[in-house]
């Protein structure tokens, strides 16, 4: 069964304190791994797509990386406006219709 | 483009009532999804569709029904609402990769 596990559940950082969020996945052939940001009361907003091990994507202070079993979302020198819940999702080659999500990591960045 | 739109934004139902959550996308995406999100939790897939006329169950389909008669619309039907269906419901569409989400419908069943 396809499964996605994110850790930690919650993370508190001081402004400027870099860290990483983890997304471990079990899937029957990975077609794509996706990172989203979700602000309170809103729908998830797409950030990145990763397709193969070794791939990296960057956007401002965020960098996503992918291995064969997990993905990391690295946050460099975060600012308070980076506070949000970050969600990871996978799509299997065997069933490209499904997008399966992890439970998310809630990030709080204090000034 | 309006993207993915959902109606209503909020709704309160009594136990046993029925309702339809509407979802429309104007991006001509083949794939559409319905998720529910409970407080502090991730997104659970209810149903999805890979094209008009084709739907399939996700992780938590019990108590829900869907139909997909057009590319644009993917309504979610709740029959005999139960308190366990209190949640925020998100619709999403995709061209085949990442999904693009609507703003959500907050549903309370009392």
Summary of the model, kept short:
The complex is a heterodimer of chains A (111) and B (110). With 111 residues, chain A is an all-beta fold.
What do you see in this structure?
- The complex is a heterodimer of chains A (111) and B (110).
- By secondary structure, chain A is mainly beta.
- Chain A has strands at residues 3-7, 10-14, 19-26, 30-38, 45-50, 56-59, 62-66, 70-75, 84-92, 95-101, 105-110.
- Helices cover 0% and strands 63% of the residues of chain A.
- In chain A, strands 2, 4, 5, 9, 10 and 11 form a six-stranded mixed beta sheet that branches. Chain A has a five-stranded antiparallel beta sheet with strand order 1-3-8-7-6, with no helix packed on it.
- In chain A, strand 6 and strand 7 (62-66) form a beta hairpin.
- By secondary structure, chain B is mostly beta strands.
- Helix content of chain B is 0%, strand content 51%.
- Classes of the chains: A mainly beta (111), B mainly beta (110).
- Chains A and B meet through strand 4, strand 5, strand 9 and strand 10 of A and strand 4, strand 5, strand 9 and strand 10 of B.
Number of distinct beta strands of chain A: 11
N-to-C series of helices and strands of chain A: EEEEEEEEEEE
Report the oligomer. Answer: heterodimer
- Share of helix among residues of chain B? under 10%
Classify the secondary structure makeup of chain A into a structural class. Answer: mainly beta
């Amino acid at each position: 069964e396809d499964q996605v596990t994110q850790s930690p559940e919650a993370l508190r950082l001081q402004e400027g304190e870099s860290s990483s969020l983890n997304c471990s996945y079990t899937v029957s052939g990975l077609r794509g791994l996706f990172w989203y940001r979700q602000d309170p009361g809103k729908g998830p907003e797409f950030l990145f797509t990763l397709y193969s091990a070794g791939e990296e994507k960057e956007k401002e202070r965020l960098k996503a990386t992918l291995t064969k079993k997990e993905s990391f979302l690295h946050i460099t020198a975060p600012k308070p406006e980076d506070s949000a819940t970050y969600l990871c999702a996978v799509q299997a080659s065997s069933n490209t219709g499904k997008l399966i999500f992890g439970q998310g990591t809630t990030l709080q960045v204090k000034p | 483009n309006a993207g993915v739109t959902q109606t209503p934004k909020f709704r309160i139902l009594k136990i046993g009532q029925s309702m339809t959550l509407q979802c429309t996308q104007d991006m001509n995406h083949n794939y559409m999804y319905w998720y529910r999100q409970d407080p502090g939790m991730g997104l659970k897939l209810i149903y999805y569709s890979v094209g008009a006329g084709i739907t399939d169950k996700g992780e938590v389909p019990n108590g829900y029904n869907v139909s997909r008669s057009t590319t644009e619309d993917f309504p979610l039907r709740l029959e005999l609402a139960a308190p366990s269906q209190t949640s925020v419901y998100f619709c999403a569409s995709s061209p085949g990769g990442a999904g693009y989400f609507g703003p959500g419908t907050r549903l309370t069943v009392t």
